[in-house]
Amino acid sequence: MKSSHTPAATFAAADDASVLGYGGLAAAVRLAERCDLPGQVTAKVRLTGAGNGAGTAVDAKAMSLVAGMVAGADSIDDLDVLRHGAMQKAFAGVRAPSTLGAFLRAFTWGHVRQLQSATRAFTGNLVAHCNLLPGADRVVFLDIDSKVKQVYGPAKQGASFGYTKVRGLHFQIVTASTPIAAPVIVASRLRKGAAGSAKGAASLVTEAVNAVRAMGIRGQIIVRADSAFCSHKVVAACHRAGVRFSFTIAQHKKVRETVAGIDPGAWTAIKYPNAVFDEDEQRWVSDAEVAETSYTAFTGKRKEYHTTARLLVRRVRRLNAAQVPDGQGELFAAHRFHAVFTDSPLALLDAEADHRRHAIVEQVFADLEDSALAHLPSGKFTANAAWLTLATIAHNLTRALGALASTFHARARTGTIRRHLIAVPARLTLGGRTLTWHFPDRWPWWAALENLWTATGHRLRT
């Protein structure tokens, strides 16, 4: 590729009021309206007593924030992306960044909880309207995890140093997914930077289970998490909610002794990187094997918290030569052990493989940090908590747009969906009382965009 004209014959002019850079936002806004996001926010978020009119038109302000995030805004100033070219012609009620910042700073913790309630209702509508969780009639996995989001201003409320040794704010999310569906965020919470990973996890799991059941999902629910969340409180919350659990468990002395007591003949090789299938013996030859035994956890707590369940153990051969005694070679092969405490009803191989897929939640963290959660933009803690909640709405809305567009986009990263289906330049023309969006000729993902456009109720000119 090279320039088609010399610099002397090339000019630029910002003078076209009929062009906008995010043509796909029309479908996003229409879908949010169809799933009643403005109505839910109006009904549940009441910023009574907020000064300077911050509590008025909460639906328009929430929609502006979400639309900006869907377009890729990751700070309050970035929301000005909604006010270029023909955006005012395409959408009504767009608010300025200064107005949206005042709106966020008017939130108290109670208002954040109101917004979370509206978010759960909207997410339920979105899941039903777009079939975001196919296969949920059989099994739904709820993955909970936390992450410290680094911040750089000591004046930010709640920012402090936690286990990562960086100043930040610590947020939790719970995602819902199925074996054939990409994850949807069903619960979130912002905490102080020094908060432990599992602080408040039991109540967040309960919220997530209630949110999923409110969607009409009646399949088996399995809560998955890493060892930071394997506590008597979280397991008890799972029992109260009538769901199953699958948690990595820390390798303390009692667990190590239980693992050491597993029969040497009970280990089964599994399909793992570099595994080879032996056709003659019909088994995997692998560096990883699994076995299971029974284990009673939390015996140091009150008797009501004592829990007996399955202990699934995966052992992986250590490939580091430093772990092999001099002169011994493979005679004393060393292993790393990974234990999972679970009451999953699945067979050993299936239950262990399903637990490893808990890592899917890391993809959601990556998606969030590639969009609205690149920053927590306010100095006020509750404003950042509201920003986090709105970011989860934008994530789920983007995921729904992908599901309506194509099979590929239904599982694509949200950044890919934004690049293919949202950040599409368009020119608007008005005639005969109709508004026509002119998209680029030969747009590579036009078939998916056409599916999305028609699925949200827009018509095409032929």
Mean pLDDT: 91
Q: How much of the residues is beta strand, in percent?
A: 15-25%
- Anisotropy-based shape: globular
Low-confidence stretches: 327-332
Structural class designation: alpha+beta
By DSSP, the count of extended strands is: 15
Give the oligomeric state of the chains in this entry, treating copies of one chain as homo and distinct chains as hetero.
single chain
Q: SSE string, helix = H, strand = E?
A: EHHHHHHEEEEHEHEHEEEEEEHHHHHEEH
Helix fraction?
25-40%
Query: End-to-end distance, in Å?
Result: 32 Å
Give me the Rg, rounded. 25 Å
Protein architecture, described:
By secondary structure, the protein is an alpha+beta fold. The protein is 36% helix and 21% strand. It has 15 helices and 15 strands. Strands 2, 3, 4, 5, 6, 7, 8, 11, 12 and 13 form a 10-stranded mixed beta sheet that branches. A 3-stranded antiparallel beta sheet has the order 1-14-15. It has a two-stranded antiparallel ribbon with strand order 9-10. The longest helix has 25 residues. The two termini are 32 Å apart. The relative contact order is 0.14.
